[in-house]
Amino acid sequence: MTDTRDPSRRGFLTGALAIGGGFVAARAGAETAPDPAITELQPWQQYLGEGVDARPYGFPSEHEAHVVRRNVPWLTADATSSVNFTPLHELDGIITPNGLCFERHHGGIAELDPGSYRLMINGLVDSPLVFTMQDLLRFPRENRVHFLECAANSGMEWRGAQLNGCQFTHGMIHNVMYTGVPLRLLLEEAGVRTSAAWILAEGADASGMTRSIPLEKALDDCLVAFKMNGEALRPEQGYPVRLVVPGWEGNMWVKWLRRIEVGDQPWHHREETSKYTDLLPDGRARRFTWEMDAKSVITSPSPQAPIPHGPGPMVLTGLAWSGRGTIPRVDVTLDGGVTWTEARMSGPSFDKSLHRFYHDFVWDGRPMLLQSRAHDSTGYVQPTKDALREIRGENSIYHNNGIQTWAVNESGVAENVEIS
Predict the structure, then answer these.
(1) Alpha carbons 245 and 132: distance in angstroms, whole number
(2) Scanning 59, 150, 163, 191, which has the fewest C-beta atoms within 10 Å of its C-beta?
(3) Where in the chain are all domains bearing CATH 3.90.420.10?
(4) How many of the other CB atoms lie within 10 Å of CB of 235?
(5) Strands 344-346 and 414-417
(6) Moybdenum cofactor oxidoreductase dimerisation domain spans which residues (predicted)?
(7) How high is the mean pLDDT in each 10-residue block of the chain (420 residues)?
(8) C-alpha distances in Å from residue 303, one per residue of 78, 261, 412
(9) DSSP-derived secondary structure letter, 149
(10) CATH, domain range 295-417
(11) Highest CATH level, class, for 83-286
């Protein structure tokens, strides 16, 4: 069988094994102490562990206690209307564990009793309806994997490199399997009138979150979801019911969903006028910029995930996504864009979902400028930050999908930088 592995990588591994074997022989000849991690019984081998009922709801190893959501205290005045960030640099694959999905609240976490939960549909409908939790569970349901990204993800980077870690620059995103009832079925049950063109989704939290959504989108792929990754929504993710609006900014995915009003025009509430619009250089604001453009980030190496070894074989990895479809291709560069290489895509490719990419190479120990560039299924290519600023300026907060750069030094330590 022909060996198709990279010759430089194969050569390094062969050499390392030979050197390693010689090194072990030399140590043995000098009668140095053997490695106790191999030759001696470890503590966990000498006593019985806990039984099957000791942890009725499982949790990660104590050695993974550092893998948590984190916030940036100075970003907001109060944690009840704030955000924390998914530790993207610690994860692999495309599914975000429920306990690590970033949080964004406008009035803190609403704690709802599912027995008292009600969802009302009113407005331009033939029959205004109220559904209980049990009513919703009687409708046909679907399972879909989608990303949820806050429109302000990477927002601090508009004016230059700010936050040193992909958890903080890109961590307002997660990707889970949602289970729920297509919103279309509930609207059909109520009977949408021909004059209808919009819906207003309203949350039950203290902020009274509302967003206007075109009826076309509501009837297309929106879900009224009650499960994520197979279990009930977490309270911080909208328990017992939230709206799923695939590919569109996270602010529209109203949590603790309590009401859907059908109307003939948008409501122009706070979250679509003074907030979640994009201020341009001339003072005008783009509104209704719902779709999340194609974007990517290298999660390792990155500032929170330095290279733990010296020169030699290594794996670069990251995530890419698009609110308009799938990601068939991601390019990576080690030299700041002078040369690009097509990355290796691995794992399922779902519509409006995260996609995992890898680049396997032999690092020569020299400094690197790492970037990734996503291509989505519409043909759109992720732009540089400079190209984005030429059109949008620097006044915006939302929808920054520019290419991210990590500078890696000879020691393998990475830093958030910008290059022109």
Answers:
(1) 21
(2) 59
(3) 83-286
(4) 15
(5) unpaired
(6) 287-404
(7) 44 40 39 88 94 94 96 91 97 98 96 97 98 98 98 94 96 98 98 98 96 98 98 98 98 98 97 92 92 98 97 98 98 98 98 98 98 98 96 92 98 95
(8) 27, 45, 10
(9) E
(10) 2.60.40.650
(11) alpha beta
